[in-house]
Amino acid sequence: MSDGLIVIGASGHAKVCIELLRDTGQHVSFCVGGADSGDICLGVPVLHGDEHLEALARQGFRRAFVAIGANALRQRLAAAVRALGFELVNAVSPRAMVSPSATIGHGVAIMAGAVINADSSIADLAIINTAASVDHDGVIGEAAHIGPQCGLAGNVHVGPRSFLGIGSRVIPGVSIGADVVAGAGSVIISNVAQNARIAGIPAKTMRKKAP
Ligand SMILES: CC(=O)SCCNC(=O)CCNC(=O)[C@H](O)C(C)(C)COP(=O)(O)OP(=O)(O)OC[C@H]1O[C@@H](n2cnc3c(N)ncnc32)[C@H](O)[C@@H]1OP(=O)(O)O
Q: Which of 58, 89, 120 is the C-terminal boundary of a domain?
């Protein structure tokens, strides 16, 4: 069995995650990217195509991290990787502040400067991006992405696969459904239904594009 770690993805998000993993003393052996990925990602050799995962599992690799920004795709790939027998590790910056009473799932990324406060829960595959904060009793759903510099007040719930764009703000007690997209700088002051696309101050449903 190999101690080395496989990162799925070879993009900008993967670069940040590779550095987080290195910061915690972990060695990334290979990235698995798409056909159009480069050959090297931050010094890590890139294999092209998901079919390489099966071969890596046969070679004894057992630990993986899915570094894909797109939420639904990250969730699908994680299921495939787990089915091959890989364990999903976390990439948590030593420069993040994670409360000892918070619960953190598997395959989670928490970037530098992020703060996760008391009794919060961060589900599998969530991303808490650079300098974002999740205050007390927050609940972040599976494969959700809290963008850089977002500020979530206490008791905010974010559903699975939802994305809050950079610099969004959420007042206390708000519940955001699954698969929501909130534009950069949204100020969210009331509950949001699943699949909604919202933006603005205060955040409102975005106009549909003309066909
Ligand atoms: C480390 C990292 O990089 S992590 C990644 C962080 N990424 C982000 O934060 C991205 C956030 N993305 C956004 O805010 C995008 O604008 C989205 C997803 C909300 C919308 O993107 P699109 O679907 O392409 O919408 P589009 O650009 O066509 O805009 C549609 C309308 O919404 C408006 N709009 C778009 N974004 C916003 C916003 N954040 N706030 C207010 N209005 C907005 C546009 O002005 C446009 O208005 P109009 O119809 O009156 O002209």
A: 89
